[in-house]
Specification:
The structure holds 2 protein chains of 2 kinds. Chain A is mainly β. In chain A, about 0% of the residues lie in helices and about 50% in strands. In chain A, the strands form 2 sheets. In chain A, strands 2, 4, 5, 9, 10 and 11 form a 6-stranded mixed sheet that branches. Chain A has a 5-stranded antiparallel sheet with strand order 1-3-8-7-6, with no helix packed on it. Chain A is globular, with a radius of gyration of 14 Å. The mean pLDDT of chain A is about 90. In chain B, strands 2, 4, 5, 6, 9, 10 and 11 form a 7-stranded mixed sheet that branches. In chain B, strand 5 and strand 6 form a beta hairpin. Helix content of chain B is about 0%, strand content about 50%. Chain B is built from no helices and 11 strands. The radius of gyration of chain B is 14 Å and the shape is globular. The model of chain B has no long low-confidence stretch (mean pLDDT about 90). The chains are: A mainly beta, B mainly beta. Chains A and B meet through strand 4, strand 5 and strand 10 of A and strand 5, strand 9 and strand 10 of B.
């Protein structure tokens, strides 16, 4: 059972335009969501997170939106840069439960930003 | 801040041998460390969760006698793959959480270890 889903395996955008990466989840107990960026043969790098008490969190070029009723979150990158090309994972956690902060990851979306 | 290191970054071993991978939080105390493995073009799969000074909690399907985890201090956790076989070849990644204040619930990942068992 895939509790966190990233239905788009890949996305290609032009430099300077907006990149929108989507993520859906099924477990209503999730209350904390994160986005990570990953290059091949490296560990994921934390980008941005959002708590379920918010619907938006912004950090520089990165904005995460959360729609709890739809169990959907998205990561917006604007403007997109070639260096943003990587695999992006969304992850979710149910901090209110006793799961010791375990993260459930989506399958990842490969973003390619073309110059 | 929030830097996690892993050693070694790459290891090749013969079938039947044991391999130890270290995970260190360099600038914060990690109350909890996590071990993941990633197969090519797949997501990260959690193997186990470890808290300093206590036994690790393994995910379903992960053999605890094969993947020994020790979390002896707030900055070091080790994963030992015992009697490694070619099917254990994978990319192993650790993460740590417990940053005082701020992003306390965020996991910070190490760079990963590529294990190849011949």
């Amino acid at each position: 059972d895939q509790q966190v889903k990233q239905n788009s395996p890949s996305l290609s955008v032009q430099e300077g335009r907006i990149s929108i990466l989507n993520c859906d989840y099924t477990n209503s107990m999730f209350d904390y969501f994160l986005w990570y960026k990953k290059y091949p043969a490296e560990g994921p790098t934390f980008l941005i997170s959002i708590s379920s008490i918010k619907d938006k969190n912004e950090d520089g070029r990165f904005t995460v939106f959360l729609n709890k009723s739809a169990k959907h979150l998205s990561l917006h990158i604007v403007p997109s840069q070639p260096g943003d090309s990587a695999v992006y994972f969304c992850a979710a956690s149910a901090r209110g439960s006793s799961n010791t902060g375990k993260l459930i990851f989506g399958q990842g979306t490969t973003l390619q930003v073309k110059p | 801040g929030a830097v996690v290191s892993q050693h070694p970054s790459r290891v090749i071993c013969k079938s039947g041998t044991s391999v130890k991978i270290e995970c260190r939080s360099l600038d914060f105390q990690a109350t909890t460390m996590f071990w993941y493995r990633q197969f090519p073009k797949q997501s990260l799969m959690l193997m186990a969760t470890s808290n300093e000074g206590s036994k690790a909690t393994y995910e379903q399907g992960v053999e605890k006698d094969k993947f020994l985890i020790n979390h002896a201090s707030l900055t070091l956790s080790t994963l030992t793959v015992t009697s490694a076989h070619p099917e254990d070849s994978s990319f192993y990644i650790c993460s740590a959480s417990g940053l005082a204040g701020g992003q306390a619930d965020t996991q910070y990942f190490g760079p990963g270890t590529r294990l190849t068992v011949l």
